[in-house]
Amino acid sequence: MLYFDIRSLEAGAESVDGTLEVSDPVWQESDARPVEPGVHVVGRLSGAGAGRFYFSGRFEGAAVAECRRCLREVTVPVSDEVHLLFAESEVDEADEDDVVPIPAGERDLDLRPALREEWLMAVPAFALCREDCQGFCPSCGTDRNSEACTCPPPSDPRWDGLRVAREPQS
Predict the structure, then answer these.
(1) Taking CA atoms, which of 58, 62, 129, 168 is between 20 and 30 Å from 42?
(2) What is the pLDDT of residues 132-155, one digit of tens each?
């Protein structure tokens, strides 16, 4: 469960054990979405003063990404520890980056939008299908994982001065 009645949180802490599902409407079109069964979230949600609540826990799941070298689809594991402070809008007027606002008059605390943001930050920006992925040849575009390429290795002209300096003088 990722929704909590604020009144029950004021009375005592709650255990969190739920799944942010792939089909949940919190995900946006451009998001790095998790694969089935979704993002499993566990932790503890407790009061942290008047109108403030603290979540401490972790999430685990997997996301689909493209290999940065060969563009193949790859599934990458994603997990992270999460620590969030929620505050009612009237209680915390300062626009602090590390505080998740609770709209005034809200009776339920919804963890899903904040967990979505944490998930997006935890998904690796660069994925590899395997550590020894050869990727594409920058000259002819051949996938070097599936066939050999006869192109010479690319040379960066910015290093030519050092190459000349390194050559033995005769």
Answers:
(1) 129
(2) 999 998 888 899 999 988 888 777
pTM of the predicted model as reported, rounded to 2 decimal places: 0.77
What tokens does 125 get?
Answer: 């920006």
SS in 3 state form for the chain? CCEEEHHHHHHCCEEEEEEECCCCCCCCCCCCCECCCCEEEEEEEEECCCCEEEEEEEEEEEEEEEECCCCCEEEEEEEEEEEEEEEECCCCCCCCCCEEEECCCCCEEECHHHHHHHHHHHCCCCECCCCCCCCECCCCCCECCCCCCCCCCCCCHHHHHHHHHHCCCC
